[in-house]
Backbone:
């Protein structure tokens, strides 16, 4: 009887061991990111991936991109049950240090899984939105240096809209979700000069730091005159003709004084540009918007 009992126990152990050997369920699964257009965020921010499972975000890990465009990592180990159940991938910009375990408001890209692949872009909610139909116009004038008519120095200012009394909005861009704002730029001799940040197109932006000497904050649209407080390497007044003008999308809060990687509208002011009432067109710069795929296996 004792020998038979031992034989039964041995057989059961054999079954268990064979069963364990044949268990092909991995302890982790891999998520691979193949995204173009991401840039260095500096030392105060980092990218973080998230999968959405049953409506809740689960972090897939953080990574950085250096000044050469090299990623610190693009493949991440994830719980296989979570990864298989994921319906969406979201990429955020997170602060360093990050006191909040939840995703930030800066949701840069998103994509819905179709099979084992998600195509990510700014167009998929909860990311920024679609810029496919973006457009805009600008004009040259210096309203902050004018109290009694045109002073003849309109080549020193650029404003995003249609001239008039008062000027009206001229940017056609998506309304941004919480965590983002637009910012205007003129590329000077030493680098980008901010014209201010804004979220609406028919109100003043948040800055007139370079504006004129008159007691005039400017018209009810974004833009800037370049008369005062010239940064190092710049000579004011700044003739904007022949210079690049940019509308970017910036994270809020913004950890960098330079333009963020999203620049949906750009223009080079003609060297012979006429001033207001003439308007000039922005061009789309959709190549600046990151896109790519996320794969699970």
Residues:
């Amino acid at each position: 009887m004792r020998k038979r009992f031992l034989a039964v126990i041995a057989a059961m152990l054999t079954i268990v061991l064979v069963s364990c050997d044949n268990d092909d369920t991995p302890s982790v699964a891999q998520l691979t990111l193949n995204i173009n257009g991401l840039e260095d965020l500096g030392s105060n921010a980092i990218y973080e991936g998230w999968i959405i499972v049953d409506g809740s975000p689960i972090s897939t890990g953080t990574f950085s991109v250096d000044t050469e465009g090299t990623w610190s990592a693009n493949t991440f180990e994830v719980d296989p049950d979570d990864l298989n159940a994921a319906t969406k991938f979201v990429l955020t910009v997170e602060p360093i240090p990050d006191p909040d375990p939840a995703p930030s408001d800066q949701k840069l890209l998103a994509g819905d899984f179709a099979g084992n692949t998600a195509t990510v872009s700014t167009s998929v909610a909860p990311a920024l939105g679609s810029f496919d139909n973006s457009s805009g116009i600008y004009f040259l004038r210096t309203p902050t240096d004018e109290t009694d008519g045109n002073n003849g120095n309109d080549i020193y200012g650029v404003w995003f809209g249609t001239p008039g009394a008062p000027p009206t909005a001229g940017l056609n861009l998506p309304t941004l979700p919480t965590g983002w704002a637009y910012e205007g730029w003129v590329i000077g001799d030493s680098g980008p000069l901010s014209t201010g940040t804004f979220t609406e197109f028919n109100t003043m932006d948040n800055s007139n730091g370079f504006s004129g000497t008159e007691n005039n904050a400017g018209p009810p649209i974004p833009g800037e005159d370049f008369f005062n407080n010239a940064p190092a390497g710049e000579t004011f007044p700044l003739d904007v003709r022949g210079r690049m003008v940019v509308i970017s999308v910036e994270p809020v809060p913004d950890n960098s004084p330079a333009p963020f990687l999203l620049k949906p509208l750009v223009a080079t002011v003609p060297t012979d540009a006429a001033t207001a009432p003439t308007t000039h067109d922005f061009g789309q710069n959709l190549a600046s918007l990151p896109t790519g795929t996320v794969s699970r296996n």
